[in-house]
Specification:
mainly alpha; two-stranded antiparallel ribbon; 7 helices; 2 strands; globular; SufE family protein
Length: about 150
């Protein structure tokens, strides 16, 4: 099942955030950016049906969102999915930043980039709160791992 865990192309979270910023800046408006984010979500590895349950569900999201993590060679790798296309894209964006990083790196990477990229402001209030809840769930998993 290791192929369900996302492996980002960038070496670290800072590079991932900068790449995402550059990619989003290529588009003139948020409708085009949303489409790009949705495409990111479509490229995520398939999330196993048996993990789409309450024990994997992220609380605080309007849509259903599921996350799973595993530790490998000192890094945490995440798998994720949602039942909504735009939210699946937001999952992909977060996994690109946080998956494959050490717990310390995850905890040092505050989710302020969601605001810096203009994402939280561009989303509905519920979706903005949801993406922040997803980031917090990832960071809580890293904190448990680091303890």
């Amino acid at each position: 099942m290791s192929d369900v865990f996302y492996r980002p192309p960038e070496e670290n979270a800072v590079d991932a955030i900068e790449e995402i910023r550059a990619e989003l800046d290529m588009f003139d408006d948020w409708m085009e950016r949303y489409q790009y984010i949705i495409e990111m979500g479509r490229k995520l590895p398939a999330f196993p049906q048996e993990w789409q349950d309450d024990s994997h569900r992220v609380p605080g999201c309007q849509s259903q969102v599921w996350l799973e993590a595993k530790e490998e060679e000192g890094a945490l790798f995440f798998a994720g999915a949602s039942d909504a296309a735009i939210v699946q894209g937001l999952v992909a964006l977060l996994l690109r930043v946080y998956s494959g990083r050490t717990s310390a790196d995850i905890l040092q990477t505050e989710p302020v980039f969601l605001h810096d990229l203009g994402l939280v402001k561009a989303l509905s209030t519920n979706r903005g709160n949801g993406v922040e809840a997803m980031a917090q769930a990832i960071r809580q998993r890293a904190a448990r791992n680091a303890a």
